[in-house]
Every structure is written in C-alpha cells, then in structure tokens.
Specification:
The chain has one domain. 74% of the residues lie in helices and 0% in strands. It has six helices and no strands. Helix 1 packs antiparallel against helix 3 and helix 1 packs across helix 6. It comes from Ideonella oryzae.
C-alpha cells in the first residue's frame, strides 16, 4: 500500500507538470519567462523528487534505469532555489519525468501486488 500511495503522488504530480509543459509552445524560453508556470512546474517536480527519494529500497532496486542521480540533483537544486537550475529543470520535464513515469507504469504492471490498496 505504501508503494501505491507514493506511486499515486508521483503519477499525479508528474502528469500535472507534463500538462503545463505541453501547453507551452515556446519551449524552454517560454517556460523560464513565465514565473507562475515555472513555479507551478517546479512545485510538481519537487513533489515528485521528494516522493521518489522516499521509495522503498526494493522498489528503487527494481528500477535501475531511473536516473536516481538526476532526481537527487533536481531535488537539491529545487530545495536550494539554485539560480542555475534552468538546465536541470528543463532536463527533468523533457526527459527525466516522462521516462520515470513510463518505468513506474511498467513496474506497476509487473508487480501489481505492490500497488494494490489493502483494507
């Protein structure tokens, strides 16, 4: 159940971030020129990165393809409000986040018991 709750947080926040990015027609320049959109996306990314940092080790071991170093760097950059975070934020929304969501969906299909709600 714990993995399901974490998966749901990652999936929901990740999808919200991706919806905001898809709406941008001007790519990175438009994102970083829009303080409100950037803040919303960074909030979603921070939520995802923080949640991923709390995944059970067994889940993390089953996802060796995830760029855990990238997520750690993003988490640090967002927490510290690093003024040089543009590249890592753009990497996260274009590559890191979509790839991680796909890998989590694949793991959910392989290990459905980890993601079931138990009452």
């Amino acid at each position: 159940m714990y993995a399901k709750a974490l998966f749901d947080i990652v999936h929901t926040s990740g999808q919200q971030a991706l919806k905001l990015v898809v709406a941008l027609e001007g790519g990175a320049d438009e994102l970083f020129a829009s303080p409100n959109t950037l803040a919303a996306i960074e909030d979603h990314l921070l939520n995802v990165a923080t949640t991923l940092a709390h995944l059970p080790p067994v889940v993390m071991l089953r996802l060796p393809q995830v760029d855990w170093t990238g997520w750690g760097a993003l988490l640090q950059a967002l927490r510290q409000r690093d003024p040089q975070r543009r590249d890592i934020v753009w990497y996260a929304v274009c590559g890191l986040l979509p790839a991680t969501l796909v890998l989590l969906d694949q793991l959910r299909a392989q290990e459905p018991d980890w993601f079931e709600i138990q009452y």
